[in-house]
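Q: Joint fold for the lines below.
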Amino acid sequence: MAVRLYVEKRLTKGAAFELGPEQTHYLVHVMRLAARDRVRLFNGRDGEWDAVIEKQSKKRILIAPKKCCRPQDTIANLWFLFAPIKRNCIDNLVEKATELGVAHLKPVVTERTETKRINMKRLKAHVIEAAEQTKRLCIPKIDEAKPLEKVLNDWPSARRLLLCDETGGGPPILEAIVRAGPGEWAILTGPEGGFTRGELDALRQLPFVISASLGPRVLRADTAAIAALTCWQAVLGDWKKRPNFRFKETTS
Amino acid sequence: MAVRLYVEKRLTKGAAFELGPEQTHYLVHVMRLAARDRVRLFNGRDGEWDAVIEKQSKKRILIAPKKCCRPQDTIANLWFLFAPIKRNCIDNLVEKATELGVAHLKPVVTERTETKRINMKRLKAHVIEAAEQTKRLCIPKIDEAKPLEKVLNDWPSARRLLLCDETGGGPPILEAIVRAGPGEWAILTGPEGGFTRGELDALRQLPFVISASLGPRVLRADTAAIAALTCWQAVLGDWKKRPNFRFKETTS
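A: Joint structure:
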């Protein structure tokens, strides 16, 4: 399978450019690619391009887009609000959210959030890597962490906020999503220790909040997030679309 | 929140017993519990019991069940067939499958399965820990790994097998599950590299196999598993049940 890289440069036929030092290192020293090898490029605007390495040295790669092989698509403008959790788990969480088609990642600090400092650079690198592997044509935006209260104060009133309520307060999640129907949505999951009773009470009183239950067992923060994003994509998102790239590549 | 422990002993009022060395170590040295402290016990048969530590030394704990606080329930007899993946990922996978209510874990070796040796002892310990934390009243069974072909040859014909088909060959997953309806089910996900074309062709011809698509992006093996188990529980499983233990404990 071809290596896929996210780049910021404009992609247009034959307009060669140099890759940055990290991607150069990856292609030369990890993937061991050289002149005339092919890679795939995307930038979130111009679709996916078949590209060829024109010149390669240890520290420089010049790469030229040759042919657009997938037109740019758009994904649902789904937001994902999550309380930061500990290091490996947060990496896993943003990776899964990227695979599950989130457009905008918004870390929120809740009362029981223990992880208050986030390494944004590392998180962005994870998000890009996940987008490359999951064959997205865009990368999710990611905000700096903000207090949940502040995010709720500035909330756009037309956007629904699905609250994964671990106390079982809301209707079952599929029912909650089907009942509210299409529109702009965000999904909110709590930290390891859950939301406090005060937070849950305040959230439930907001007109845009839709509580939902994720069944009778306790789910870890990351499981709850993947489960909620899955239900949303399966009911209102793009899971009815077929992949437009796979049949060729999976012939063995 | 009380410590929950899975034990094999019969649980009945006042019938005290000694814990094994690992659980003793955990209670004494990790949780720092002592005589008169309370824990919760379950064994998969007698419900959940409030229990009290009667005697404690560095190496011995005598514990007595006092009161049954949750009656034994039954969970759906859902099987989960998965190709073993690398160490940390497989730990994560069985943990999530336990949270998502799987009754029986069946590792299957497929053509592209690279991880052929599984440390069953470690995996069982993970499954028990996950069951304790997710508040299950039973632990999932877990088989030794077998070749996929052998498992399919011995298949009980009335049980449906949901194939997470990364080529997008099947209908969207919710549609596939809703259309087939209630009954005995199993869910199958592949290894990191996916199934081979030959495996997919063979699987699709089996009368009990139901192919399903998980949307237009490539999902990692563990994401696909969590997503498929979520959809099954949300449509046919117990996600319409409310938790029967949480309101008290989440008051802050």
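Q: Anything notable?
A: Residues 245-252 of chain B have pLDDT under 50 and may be disordered. Residues 79-235 of chain B form a domain with the Alpha/beta knot fold (CATH 3.40.1280.10).
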